């Protein structure tokens, strides 16, 4: 659906070139929710704005549905942009227009007549659950409601792709959840492909299928969300995941302070629900001391981490570790 | 007294009304052009911006009375004479136009960059962004700007009176200054003050009524 090849973007600062994006390549599948996560300044905002050329790429190609976006002239680009909806962190609603007028604007600009606009806007209001806010101005709406208006407005022209630029960053956790649910519904029911950038790992966890980790203008890791939580490869990804488990304080487990062998076990999917550790204790002559652990709910599955101290003879410990591996548990000796 | 004040008041209203209309016709497009052609604008044209910016600065530097005298030939060309209320509308409009351009520029620049970006993201053309997003979003501020322009033009029109433009300023100078009829001068000034207050009051009211922010 979206193919990004060797994309780079430089911001000219006098004679100097500051590279915000460095040679980035990835693809997004049709109907996928693809996340791009990174700290602020990682270049993710610039990257998503290159996808509809709000920001002009310096090098590289962006192919959407077989069309090279970077090769389009202004008129062709404007037409293509109607296929790509976008929502923003600060909603970007017109403050002087009502909910209805805001959603109607893209339709008006596309040249629809009053009757068509009316029926389409009513349909969209219904879809995002804002029928009673039809005549309210943005200043009378809550953050979540504003983002719903923005989503309805972005959907007005039936786009195939939705770009989300930190759409939940200004919202509280509960509202964030409801907006993410709406986006997921849009993907499932309308078949949109969604590319979203965020600095919130919770968002990735809740809704994304795959995710790219960005750091200093480069993508350091692309992974399915399941794999990311199971076996994060990059340091940044690990940092994001451990930030999610703030209640676990994993870093305070210092293996040297224990006599036994300290291992980190990762479970996922059905594994997380089986009493594997209990079986292990019964099977082998070892003691298990649980140091920390957690289970997080990913979009479609659950992933669990457990840090345990194994006490016993070396041979038994090794056999126990082998047993865990045979049960598809990831074992990392710390 | 009334037979002196009423015709002068009407002349002032006439001058101010038409010079407001014409200065807006001249200045509004210039203000829009300034905003869209500047660096980072939606129709970036740096050279055009610099030229426009320069012209406006030069025009605004002229003291109004001098500009008025310089524009006598233009008045003659357009209305056929250089003296009189109608003739005064020409220099008033030209003098106020660059002021209007700056006022409009300032108002339009207050519009949140995010909504312009939204417009671009849905494939809006430059005219669509100007007329469907930029101007509607800036409307309350634009009304305040027009109010400011009218108040300014009331002041200018009083000065124009001094060189044969008629109106309340002219009355105050002729009777008050030259004939020592202080009462006429006082009444003229009071009427001007009421006019300014009224315009400002209405402008504020209208702007806050339509503002939904």
UniProtKB/TrEMBL annotation, chain B:
The keyword Membrane applies. It is found in: Cell membrane. Coiled coil: none annotated. Belongs to the binding-protein-dependent transport system permease family. CysTW subfamily. Keywords: Cell membrane, Membrane, Transmembrane, Transmembrane helix, Transport. One of its GO terms (biological process) is D-methionine transmembrane transport. It comes from Caldicoprobacter faecalis. This is D-methionine transport system permease protein. The chain crosses the membrane at residues 12-36, 48-72, 78-101, 142-164, 184-203. The keyword Transport applies.
């Amino acid at each position: 659906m979206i193919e990004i090849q060797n994309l780079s973007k430089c911001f000219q600062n006098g004679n100097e070139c500051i590279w915000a994006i460095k040679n980035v390549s990835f693809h997004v599948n049709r109907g996928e929710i693809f996340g791009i996560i990174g700290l602020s300044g990682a270049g993710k905002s610039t990257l998503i704005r290159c996808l509809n050329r709000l920001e002009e790429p310096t090098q590289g190609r962006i192919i959407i549905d077989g069309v090279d976006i970077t090769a389009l002239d202004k008129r062709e680009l404007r037409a293509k942009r109607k296929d790509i909806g976008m929502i923003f962190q600060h909603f970007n609603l017109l403050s002087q227009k009502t909910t209805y007028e805001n959603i109607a604007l893209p339709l008006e600009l596309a040249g629809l007549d009053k009757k068509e606009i009316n029926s389409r806007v009513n349909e969209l209001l219904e879809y995002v659950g804002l029928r009673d806010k039809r005549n309210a101005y943005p200043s009378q709406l809550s953050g979540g409601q504003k983002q719903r208006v923005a989503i309805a407005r972005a959907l007005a022209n039936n786009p195939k792709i939705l770009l989300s630029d930190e759409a939940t960053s200004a919202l509280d956790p509960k509202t964030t959840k409801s907006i993410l649910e709406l986006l997921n519904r849009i993907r499932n029911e309308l078949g949109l492909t969604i590319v979203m950038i965020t600095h919130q790992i919770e968002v990735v966890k809740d809704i994304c299928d795959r995710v790219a980790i960005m750091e200093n203008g480069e993508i350091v890791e692309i992974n399915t969300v399941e794999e990311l939580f199971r076996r994060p490869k990059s340091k940044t990804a690990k940092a994001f995941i451990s930030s999610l488990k703030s209640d676990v304080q994993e870093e305070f487990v210092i293996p040297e302070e224990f006599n036994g062998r300290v291992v980190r076990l990762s479970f996922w999917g059905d594994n997380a629900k089986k009493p594997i550790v209990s079986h292990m204790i019964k099977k082998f002559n070892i003691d298990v001391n649980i140091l920390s652990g957690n289970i997080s709910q990913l979009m479609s599955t659950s992933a669990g981490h457990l840090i345990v101290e194994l006490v016993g003879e070396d041979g038994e410990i090794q056999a126990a570790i082998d047993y865990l591996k045979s049960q598809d548990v990831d074992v990392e000796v710390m | 007294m009334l037979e002196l004040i009423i015709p002068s008041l009407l002349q002032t209203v006439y001058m101010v009304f038409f010079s407001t209309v014409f200065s807006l016709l001249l200045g509004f497009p210039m203000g829009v052009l300034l905003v869209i052609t500047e660096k980072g604008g939606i129709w970036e044209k740096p050279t055009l911006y610099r030229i426009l910016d320069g012209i406006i600065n030069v025009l605004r530097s002229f003291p109004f009375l001098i500009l008025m005298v310089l524009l006598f030939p233009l008045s003659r060309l357009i209305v056929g004479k250089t003296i009189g209320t109608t003739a005064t509308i020409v220099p008033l409009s030209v003098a106020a136009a660059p002021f209007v351009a700056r006022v409009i520029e300032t108002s339009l620049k207050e519009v949140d960059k995010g909504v312009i970006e939204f417009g671009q993201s849905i494939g809006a053309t430059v005219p669509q962004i100007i007329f469907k997003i930029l101007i509607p979003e800036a409307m309350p501020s634009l009304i305040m700007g027009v109010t400011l322009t009218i108040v300014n033009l009331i002041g200018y029109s009083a000065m124009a009176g001094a060189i044969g433009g008629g109106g309340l300023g002219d009355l105050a100078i002729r009777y008050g200054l030259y004939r020592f009829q202080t009462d006429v001068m006082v009444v003229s000034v009071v009427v001007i003050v009421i006019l300014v207050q009224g315009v400002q009051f209405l402008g504020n009211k209208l702007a806050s009524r339509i503002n939904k922010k």
